[in-house]
């Protein structure tokens, strides 16, 4: 097995105070998650409902799970009882469904709005203007069982570090704008989730509060 413990500590060692590590364990078996758990890691991210459900059933109950993938509205009900954060909310429809399912379990589910800033293929996420419109529209304020805790994005998958920096800075600036306009009194609107294995060092420079690192900790995924 990949030296998970060693890799985990290396990543943690580079993160300043105030930046959380979401260990992205998708497509890796329980042994890998247990190895990180042994070292004290409690926050993990998964992108498939079925895979996550299996892991939740078979792994320690004090693990905090983030859902990081594209989530179909008809699958929200399966994760609503336990999910700690849904990171990639990309429509008002999904936001409403999360609210509805969270209410059934008497919970408030934390979510991030996913931005689409990268120049590439991803179909998902709000453009900065669509994100502004969603908040200006105000319907989200009626949703009492969902809490918008911040923004999430993936930068373009390129070698050009300046481009990555530009995209992450744009996201950080939008965060400030929205914070001031809609969440000035809400101290829980505070998360900026960006940075993956190849760019989390840049993300930290660009005011990320939450990096999502998989490959660097667990090795390449086998699909
Ligand atoms: C898979 C994934 C990651 C982790 O990517 P690595 O390159 O393995 O670190 C981070 N964020 C999202 C949204 C992902 O789907």
UniProtKB/TrEMBL annotation:
<dbReference type="InterPro" id="IPR029066">
    <property type="entry name" value="PLP-binding_barrel"/>
</dbReference>
<feature type="modified residue" description="N6-(pyridoxal phosphate)lysine">
    <location>
        <position position="26"/>
    </location>
</feature>
<keyword id="KW-0663">Pyridoxal phosphate</keyword>
<dbReference type="InterPro" id="IPR001608">
    <property type="entry name" value="Ala_racemase_N"/>
</dbReference>
<protein>
    <recommendedName>
        <fullName>Pyridoxal phosphate homeostasis protein</fullName>
    </recommendedName>
</protein>
<dbReference type="Pfam" id="PF01168">
    <property type="entry name" value="Ala_racemase_N"/>
</dbReference>
<dbReference type="GO" id="GO:0030170">
    <property type="term" value="F:pyridoxal phosphate binding"/>
</dbReference>
<comment type="function">
    <text>Pyridoxal 5'-phosphate (PLP)-binding protein, which is involved in PLP homeostasis.</text>
</comment>
<comment type="similarity">
    <text>Belongs to the pyridoxal phosphate-binding protein YggS/PROSC family.</text>
</comment>
<dbReference type="InterPro" id="IPR011078">
    <property type="entry name" value="PyrdxlP_homeostasis"/>
</dbReference>
């Amino acid at each position: 097995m990949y030296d998970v413990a060693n890799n985990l500590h290396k990543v943690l060692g580079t993160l300043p105070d105030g930046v959380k590590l979401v260990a992205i364990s998708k497509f890796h078996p329980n042994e890998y998650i247990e190895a990180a758990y042994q070292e004290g890691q409690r926050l993990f991210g998964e992108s498939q409902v079925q895979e996550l459900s299996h892991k939740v059933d078979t792994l320690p109950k004090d693990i905090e799970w983030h859902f990081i993938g594209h989530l179909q509205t008809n699958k929200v009900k399966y994760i609503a009882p336990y999910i700690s954060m849904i990171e990639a909310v990309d429509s008002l429809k999904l936001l409403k469904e999360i609210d509805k399912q969270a209410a059934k379990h008497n919970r408030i589910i934390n979510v991030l709005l996913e931005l689409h800033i990268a120049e590439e293929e991803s179909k998902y996420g709000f453009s900065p203007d669509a994100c502004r419109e969603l908040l200006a529209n105000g319907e989200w304020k009626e949703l009492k069982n969902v809490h918008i805790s911040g923004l999430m994005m993936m930068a373009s998958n390129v070698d050009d570090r300046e481009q990555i920096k530009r995209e992450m800075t744009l996201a950080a600036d939008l965060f400030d704008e929205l914070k001031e306009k809609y969440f000035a009194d809400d101290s829980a609107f505070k998360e900026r989730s960006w940075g993956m294995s190849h760019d989390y060092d840049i993300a930290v420079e660009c005011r990320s509060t939450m990096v999502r690192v998989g490959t660097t900790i667990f090795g390449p995924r086998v699909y």
